[in-house]
Specification:
- By secondary structure, the protein is an alpha/beta fold.
- About 40% of the residues lie in helices and about 15% in strands.
- Helix 3 (about 95-110) packs antiparallel against helix 11.
- Bound molecules: pyridoxal-5'-phosphate (PLP).
């Protein structure tokens, strides 16, 4: 592994098939793919993959050719996050250092649910959680390595729910469930553009999606603190329980960071848990330059951070951090076959309280490997590059007659649309995006701008999104991508194209 390996390098070294490698020969390098994704669209791909890779379980095994076929096929037929024109989602090119560490973990196969299946990797997990909680809270806290923001948000809402029910209803819901007197009365406040996983978690936790009360946002998609305070007062006036205030640090579409300290203040005034969903923006903890954008996160009871977004980790690499060093105590379980009390007394740590999962990969290892490889300086440079790309792209879009910039970028996403001269703008923008997908040319994101206050946007709200997470991408590559988008826009901009390409 070269010392300068960084996520997004467009070459990837793949272990060669054993029988065709001359002994002592160099590791072959796969040429960077021409396409950002395989051309042809979903139907053609479905057919080709089934033809090449089924039956899944043949009666007699194929031997080495089974893996060789995948090595030959997948690099050209999977969406490539390391391609400069792959810019749709919070889907980063994985860091080669972390990929290598992940292979080591796969080969050693430790399981993080008991010390006697893990040993050193249990300590590495502690070290990673201690250092990330200290980055967030400016003091050592605790945390859990998760599969991503969805699991992190679920865990945060579970902790908040349990605390609220203990304080306001005198029950431990882990034992007794939700008392009838609390049904329909426990509330969660989050901005109208907060991530949908919060509502889903509320449903899974027995609170119902309706427990999440949307708070209006301003023109830059940030929660309005005065509206938050009003919503909290309405909940109190109704005699309901405000369990948790959720602020978002980096909305999925606009990268907007809610005013964290002001949100913390409302949560504190109402005795509510304060959670920061920093699934996207949490990567700024790694940057000396941008860390101040997260000021106020240290007031949170918990924070979700996805290092498989602005952190270049291979999926999955989520963290749920708690300010309280004993914040995950409610997860603790004692199970005879995994960790019995006398083992604990003898100094063998019980790992069950670290996660909602049981058998669990040692994802902390790849995080540690990459952090030690790049250091704060390395991450600061990579993050600055992505911010500079967003600024360049926004300026280029604003200056280009074919485009309309929606919003000044807050992090590394840029929302815009093609100015349709003939067709319906929503249809033309949707069609140009599918055209680029089916050509295999580029992956753009699409979304809808919220209407006033944050309600879901209607006709005319469709926007394209560039999510810039590849540090090596140059201004010239971004300009070329915009030229490609303009060309596809012109091709799709007709008054009578029925469904779009
Ligand atoms: C991506 C994202 C999530 C969900 O995270 P996953 O890792 O996809 O589970 C939650 N919140 C925000 C703000 C996100 O951007």
């Amino acid at each position: 592994m070269s010392g300068s390996a960084e996520p997004g390098d467009s070459t990837l070294t793949v272990a060669p098939p054993r029988q065709s490698l001359p002994p002592g020969g160099p590791m072959p390098t796969v040429a960077p793919p021409r396409h950002s994704l395989p051309p042809g669209g979903p139907e053609a791909l479905d057919e080709a993959v089934r033809e090449a890779f089924t039956p899944v379980l043949p009666q007699s095994g194929l031997g080495a050719p089974a893996l060789d076929a995948l090595l030959a096929y997948l690099p050209e037929h999977t969406v490539r996050p390391a391609h400069p024109y792959t810019a749709g989602h919070l889907h980063c090119p994985p860091d080669p250092v972390a990929v290598a560490a992940d292979q080591l973990v796969a080969a050693l196969n430790p399981s993080q649910d008991s010390w006697d299946q893990a040993a050193a990797t249990a300590v590495i997990e502690d070290c990673v959680l201690e250092s990330f909680s200290a980055l967030a809270f400016c003091a050592p806290g605790a945390g859990s390595v998760t599969s991503g923001g969805t699991e992190s948000n679920h865990l945060a809402l579970l902790l908040a729910r349990d605390r609220a029910l203990a304080v306001h209803y005198g029950v431990d819901p882990a034992q007794a469930g939700i008392p009838a007197s609390a049904a329909g009365r426990v509330r969660i406040l989050a901005s109208a553009v907060a991530h949908f996983s919060l509502a889903r978690a509320a449903a899974q936790l027995g609170l119902g999606e309706q427990a999440v009360v949307p708070v209006p946002v301003d023109a830059e998609h940030r929660l309005v603190p005065a509206e938050l305070a009003r919503a909290a007062e309405r909940i109190a006036a109704a005699g309901d329980t405000l369990a948790v205030v959720v602020a978002t640090a980096g909305t999925t579409d606009a990268g907007a960071i809610d005013p964290l300290a002001a949100c913390a203040e409302v949560a504190r005034a109402h005795g509510a848990w304060f959670h920061v969903d920093a699934a996207y923006g949490g990567g700024l903890l790694l940057s000396d330059v941008r860390r101040p954008l997260l000021d106020g996160i240290e007031l949170a009871d918990s924070a979700s951070v996805d290092l498989h977004k602005l952190g270049w980790q291979p999926i999955p690499a989520g963290l749920l951090l708690t300010r309280d060093p004993h914040g995950l105590a409610p997860l603790a379980r004692s199970v005879a076959y995994l960790s019995d009390l006398d083992d604990e007394e003898a100094g063998y740590p019980n790992l069950l309280g670290r996660s909602l999962r049981t058998t669990r990969r040692a994802d902390a290892v790849k995080i540690l490997a990459a952090c030690r490889h790049h250091g704060r300086d390395g991450y600061t440079r990579m993050i600055e590059s992505c911010f500079a790309q967003a600024a360049h792209t926004a300026a280029a879009l604003a200056a280009h007659p074919a485009f309309e910039l929606a919003l000044r970028p807050a992090l590394t996403t840029v929302l815009f649309r093609y100015r349709a001269a003939h067709g319906d703008p929503d249809r033309v923008n949707a069609a140009l995006r599918r055209r680029l997908l089916s050509e295999g040319a580029a992956v753009l994101g699409r979304t809808r701008l919220p209407g006033p206050g944050g309600a879901p946007g209607g006709a005319g709200s469709l926007r394209l999104k560039l999510t810039l997470l590849r540090p090596q991408t140059t201004p010239a590559e971004l300009d070329a991508l915009l030229a490609l988008v303009a060309e596809a826009g012109a091709a799709c901009d007709s008054a009578d194209d029925p469904a779009g390409a």
